[in-house]
Amino acid sequence: MMFATTFALDYEPLQWWELPAALKVWVQVAGAVATFALAIYSVAYLIQRPASAGKTGSRLGRVVVTLFALADACYVLALLSLAVRAAGSGAEGLRPAQPVPSGRPPVFSSLTDVLTFAAGLFAVLAVAMPLLVDLGTRISLRRIGAIARLSLKEAVRSRVVWVFASMAVIFLFAGWFVPFKPEDQVRNYVRVIYWSLAPLFLLTASLLGAFSIPNDVKSQNIHTIVTKPVERFEIVLGRYVGNALLLTAAMAVLTGMSLVYVLRGVDPQARKESLTARVPIYGDRLWFHGTAQSDKGESVGREWDYRSYIGGPHPATPQAPRQFAIWSFESLPGSFSDKQLPYFEYTFDIFRMTKGQEDRSVIANFSFADGQVTTVPQFQAALEKMRGELAQEQASLAKKLAAKNRDRVPASEIQAWKEQEQERIENALIDKYGIYEIAAEVQDYHTQVVGGNDKDRYGQKLARLVNKLQASPRQAAEGSGPAPLLNVLVSVDRQSGDQKLGVARRDFYLLAAERPFWINFIKGIVGLWFATLLMLGLAVALSTYLSGVIAWLCALFMFGMGLHVDGIRQIADGTNVGGGVIESTVRILGKLPGAAPLDRSPGASVIQGSDEVFRFGLRLFSRVVPDVSRFDLHVYVANGYDISWSQILFLNNFVLLLGYLVPWGVLAYYLMKYREIANPT
Amino acid sequence: MTNPFQQQTRLRKLIYTALILALFTGSLMHRRFVVAEQARDLQLLETSRGEVELASSAVRQVLWGSRGFAVTVLWKMAIDEQARHKWNEVELLVGSITRLQPYFITPWLFQSWNMSFNVAVECDKPRDKYYYVSRGLQLLAEGERRNQGLLDREGRPRFPGNPDMRFHMGFTYQLKIGTSDEQNAMQCLLEMSTIDPIDRDPETMWAPGKEGREVNLKRFEKFCRDHPRLVRRLSNALDYNSPKEVVAFLKDNQVIPTRFSDQRNLADQASELLDVKAQFPVLPPKVADSRLPVPLQGYWPDAVSPALTAESLDVFLIGRTWFSYAQLPLPPAYADIGAVDPPIDILRHRLPKHMTTIIFRGYPCLGQQFIAEHLQKEGWFDADGWTIKDWFEPILGGGDELRVGVEPKYHSGSAWKKAYQLYRDHGLKNGLYISPELRGELSKKAEAFRKKHRVRPGERADLRQDIRVGAMGESYAAHQKLAWNDHYRQLTNFDSHLNESEAEQDPRAVQAHKWLFEAKQAARSGANPQALGYYEQALPIWLDLFLDYPRFRRVSSTQENVYEAQLKYLRLLQREKAGPLRTAAMIVAQLGCWPNWPPFDQPFANMLNEGQRLAIIPMRMFHGPLDRTMIFDVDFMLTNRFESSQDSSYDKEFKQALMAWSQHALPFPVYLGTPSHLLTQKVSWPGSTYTDGWVPLISPSAIDVIRGHMGLPSMSERRPPTMPAMMPGKMPGTMPQK
């Protein structure tokens, strides 16, 4: 099986074990914002406190004040803890550096971390308490439903739904303008569908969300609603739910049509190779041997550093250590049998240092080895020993074959016997050494299966090896956790020694299963649906205070920034090339290179200090920008990789959406509540 | 009866209506006959620029003023996706960019180059490379169609197309398929693109055999006969050494850009051709023979015919076609090039933007030259074709071999002949070739101007306009014509091309190349004695050719090629005859020890140490048949005139006169050779100096270039090997002391 692919993720999806840490950060950030808001509110309240206000407030008010006080207290304690740690850091600096702990980091790294978390939690509770109380006591689902129905009717009457008919243009004419390699057909169709659906739904969601409440205010319809026994937040929720339902229905219809568009007339190559949803099991860790750093290979100067490279043994440098890229699998699912063989797939890049032989591919060696062989020299020694034994066995086999030929044994009988003997030799060596080696051609931008056309034969050997390893107990190495189950060592073969292979963690995996494409396509659309809901929520929340056009522009701005959140974070963290805004401007005007440091001078200090202030602001801003690239799942669909329900859709999409929209919901609650619309006073 | 007010109102309405109708009709007529005509004349209409695409126009109209912004964003996205190696997305984005600005030539050129070169080179598999080269070419072809210009009713160009785009089509074919690192694989794929997928379907080439599936040799034989160049390239250049491997290659590369659709014709025997625009290799539209140089008339590849061309399919043929097509927007060729500014109608003609026009005009000839060279390189010379050994033994019987590619279209001599005709035609039309008679006449005429203004021949001069009259004006014009002719001939290296193509069409040259090719093949397969035989047959022919075509001898690339062949011959000879040569060397060395001759009853070699053996055995001063040959350069004697390098008439005339003179004094003719061999060979001995007029057959510079390539010391720097300090006679106990 071979198909052209460029499946590469620019980010590592959130793992389940990272969820507590992510929640902690969320509480800390949301808590800081909530504390800030409460502080401003407190100051405003104290200044504008009406004379009629009693000394004792409502019970809810007292709870909020208490929570706020607790939050403040925690912040003070956190500051104290920070101060103590800062004071002690001078003495710590004299001690030898502690080794970096391996494995998963703890959720809380220090007492300050715990205290800021606690403070954030109290602040969030303080801010959310009135809303929670309202949700429990005053908010009615029936009324929300009624407003949602109203929103739907309004949208239908205003012929908004016709905007979705524009997709017909894509369905009818896109085929004329979409060139593709046969194996790229599905990939390009999926790309075109996403490029079309995404702006259509995001723009529609932003328009619907941004203009619905301001239009109510403008047309004064809102007065007829708020004077009824309707909670103001119910209007917000109703509008949101109504528009979301409309968008969901439209998306469902267009998804069905898009699926028909993608699936019609698929080229056989594309059907065989891309119209699927592979379930990969990636190695837990990729590490290197023979390169300057153990966590990455060599750089060949490519602008995109997603992959790093290993080279082959070069005759000019025989003493140089052999370079390996090693995938460690902590565990593999179940046991394998003849019916369920382990197929390992790979997608490597090739960087040629010489022309090589024309029309001949680069050869790589895949060595599957027991994870308990912890060092590469140990592995190499075992491999050499195994190869020697294999050579002896082969020589012995050749002698026996010659004898059989002399004895005029029928050719078919000899062939059967030879295959049987080879099988026996290979099995014995696997059992003895726990190593199995396969040489295979590499073709870049193609995913290939280890073993190629003989994948079943090789799969049987690998099944034997993996089953053996799973049956044997894992021993923990001194000072670390248990050894991995399997290490796969990849190296460039001697005959392609001049060339380099580019590898990344996701370039090699065990193919666990293949699922239907259409389900994966729908999952991809669900990601887009989450993005649409996010845009809608953002627009609705902003429209509770801003006018329609301004709310719409702000929503677009926030979402647009979300598309470039990685770049923003790089600038905020100071990891981008060329420095901050002022430094970059100076470099551009002075025609200075981006990578060279500025000369040490008072001017440079001022520039960098100013940029530091700017970065601080940008860091705060980057916390409120949504990371919308996470909702773009088309890369999975287009390249035929399964989108998992739990990890990708729920954890990386739904939880993210919820975590982002909840603070905006709370903000919308307060903005709407205190907006001057038919207020009694 | 209506009242006067109503009548006035009615009259006013009638007048208004009439005015409206008159104005409307007038504006329509004005638009139709004045505005539209002017717009067409000034090429302001989309339809006058080339093909129009409705969707592209619609999108551009919809974008209004934000087209620039959209293009910038798309360009940035394309660069980002390219950095991330997402080639399919780059392709989509590039398509959008070019559609948004179809009349801006640079994006077409840049992005097609980007796809064909930058994207293609990132792929390791030739099939993937080939796909992106084809996509780049198809993109540029689309751009060319959008800017193709317009013909008038007589079929003449009313508005010119873009010569640069057309040229880049040919150039990309040439560089990416003709001469790239993977040229053999790419050329195989190109040829496969032109073969009906039914004819190259690997499934039809299998048949059940004794050991499972075997190649159906009958079917495969037909394939070899129909496509000998493809099979030979696979076998000789890519080492596909059996029918099974060739069929496996066809299988691996079954789906490639092609000329044919999936639909079969009514007889179900062949595939339907794709629309001309969708085919690959993409070719320019048919051009009337009257607009082509005579040697190319009737040879334009026909994209609507399954056979495509009557010539042997070659990437350089496609290149030549595009280069020829690129000439059409140029102004007509002008024989007084340089001397007088040619008249150019800027609405009907266009000049190339990035290349001197005269060099640009020479590319069709160059394309034809590449075709001829390529045939030679692959081993196609004459009616002997290619003999396929071993593969077809089971169906042909013992000893029989299959001979393919014997048709005249595979003969390199014919291709060279066409190249010569093209160069001559090109030279005559563009003032690069001046016949000896005309040259003499012009030189005579130019004397007056040169004498009066003290101008040397070949020196460009500027005479005031008011005195360019009468006899002096004519003399000045003659001088200028000759001076510019010299300049452009040097600029375009025209003489070398002309002389080379003239000599290479000679059947002896074809034969000599063939033997050199056979020698190389034999040496590659280890048949050294046969290889030596081929070399020994070929090298004397080269000597004859150099003597018969003295200007051809001066072409540096020819000298280098022949000298390289001789060096390879010498290396092979030393290797093959190592035993006798070593013995001879030892005997000479032994004799050289006189009067202290070593004892003859034991082998001399055993008395030597390693250093001494090394000094005697490797014969560094080993000369080949062409090394010591000197010839008399007639041009040198004729005051080293530059212009005489265009044809051999001076040389021939001189030698004929010499022979007539020498024979005249005798009672009967005694010289039995040909005039060209007269006064042309002498052997120079080491240390001899060259006398005036005598030059080595192979120039020292050509020798040094090749020796440098082969890692040998330069001849000019070469010194005889220093003898070891201790001679055998001084070795204790080995030689008798005097």
Question: What do you see in this structure?
Answer:
The complex is a heterodimer of chains A (681) and B (738). Chain A is α+β, with helices and mostly antiparallel strands and 681 residues long. Chain A has 19 helices and 13 strands. Chain A has helices at 19-47, 59-92, 111-137, 141-157, 167-177, 185-218, 221-226, 232-263, 268-274, 376-406, 411-433, 455-471, 517-543, 548-563, 565-573, 581-590, 602-624, 634-639, 645-673; strands at residues 2-4, 277-282, 285-289, 308-311, 324-329, 343-346, 349-351, 362-370, 435-442, 446-449, 486-492, 500-503, 508-515. In chain A, the strands form three sheets. A five-stranded antiparallel beta sheet of chain A has the order 1-10-6-13-2. In chain A, α6 (185-218) runs parallel beside α13 (517-543), α10 (376-406) packs antiparallel against α11 and α13 packs parallel to α19. Chain A is globular, with a radius of gyration of 31 Å. The model of chain A is unreliable at 1-5 and 90-101 (pLDDT under 50). The radius of gyration of chain B is 34 Å and the shape is globular. Chain B is mostly helical. Residues 638-644 and 719-738 of chain B have low confidence and may be disordered. In chain B, β1 (150-151) and β2 form a beta hairpin. Chain B has 28 helices and eleven strands. The interface between A and B is medium-sized, with 33 and 29 residues.
